[in-house]
Amino acid sequence: MKKSEAGELLEQARTAWEAEEWLRSADLYERLLAHFPDEKASEAWWYDAALAHKFLRNWAKAYELGREAAARAPRGEGDPAYWNLGIAATIQGDWAVARDAWAGFGIELPDGEGPIETRFGPACVRLDTDGQREVVWIERLCPTRGKVVNVPVTGGRRYGEIVVHDGEPKGQRIYGGVEVPVFDELLLLEASELPTLEVTVSAAEADDLEALLALFTEHGFGAEPASGVRVLCACCSEGTHEQKRTVTTGAQQVSLAAPEEEARRLLERWAGETVIGRSWSGLAMVG
Predict the structure, then answer these.
(1) For the chain, which terminal residue's Cβ has fewer other Cβ atoms within 10 angstroms, N or C?
(2) pLDDT digits (tens, 9 = 90+) for 41-51
């Protein structure tokens, strides 16, 4: 390929990129890289081609091109080529490459093989299912995976799911004086077997409702009162907001994540712990 032809391809690839025509841009970069895989400038071309496929959620291609991009990136300096490869390798289930990618980025992980199961602390993830967006709390298992620890109100989503999230925060939440990032969901990696139920509970005191939530948590299940759900517009959701746990008294809906028989047993136990002030009704499966 002549230099003039290469220059024209590069210009077309960049123009397509600016227009967010990701597939066309990636194809043009790949055509260019087929002839010039190891030029100094090709480091950026590999990265952009891999990133375009990430935007397209074509994880096999993002993985393939991401390995080439990372192979040309400096290690231990926070180069984003490693982060994007870590995401793609995680989704592809190549844990050896994922571990090496995080190390290449500069993140220390415990020695081991297979899925990364460690504690990266709490964060929030903005779920996006068929245009329905909901911010939920997660416990991060690795730099890009987290377990959902809220009971989502979005249909089809469940407590205990394992999701893959992006690396760039889109908003902040403050809880107990600690600021945590809000990431966008990229993929539902592992579904949860726990169904979502709804029940109407009546609690005379705030401590009564707190006791119900704690009881379900102690048994590895989830419980979310309607009073804890806050509605924000899309713009506000990407800002910084202080989260305060709101627990009200009286009758209200509570979303539960548990097998129905277990939920019924725990509700009966909770209601029976006091003579008056606690009751429940209308337990029903919703998802």
Answers:
(1) N
(2) 999 999 999 99
